[in-house]
Specification:
mainly alpha; Non-ribosomal Peptide Synthetase Peptidyl Carrier Protein, Chain A; two-stranded antiparallel ribbon; 2 domains; 54% helix; elongated
């Protein structure tokens, strides 16, 4: 089998396509969560903490004499990213929990066959005589 045909078979499998869709939606969802944290969650928290803008919180490690590019340790941005992560992780946890609940709700299908006690072949559930060994099934 050639490499191109192997790749084609791999690429059109359902799992690969599902994963690609998940990555794309996850990227868009990440942007929404980042905006939610920086634009909705952090301003009230900053206001409660005396008007602090977390995205601007930083420690100057080395000042640039020209004043153009100081070396900064931006711990406020790190705090925002940590909050982003925890919100995304919590939403994913809720989604997985809901999916697991749906999987548990699906009852296994009722059996439609049984085993013949004489020849051990599979026969219909309502059969009274085995079609393979002709034994009576009681």
């Amino acid at each position: 089998m050639g490499m191109i045909s192997e790749f084609k078979e791999f690429a059109v499998k359902g799992n690969v396509v599902d994963m690609a869709v998940g990555v794309i939606i996850g990227g868009a969802f990440g942007k929404i969560v980042s905006s939610f944290v920086s634009d909705v969650v952090m301003p009230p928290i900053g206001l409660l903490l005396g008007g602090a803008d977390f995205s601007k919180l930083a420690v100057v490690l080395k000042e640039d004499p020209a004043g153009k590019a100081d070396v900064l340790l931006k711990y406020g941005a790190f705090i925002n990213y940590c909050i982003d992560f925890f919100i995304i992780a919590f939403v994913i946890f809720l989604a997985v929990k809901a999916m697991n609940r749906l999987k548990k709700a699906e009852a296994p299908a009722a059996p439609t066959t049984k085993e013949c006690p004489k020849c051990c072949s599979s026969i219909p559930l309502n059969a009274t005589k085995c079609p393979n060994c002709t034994s009576d099934i009681g």
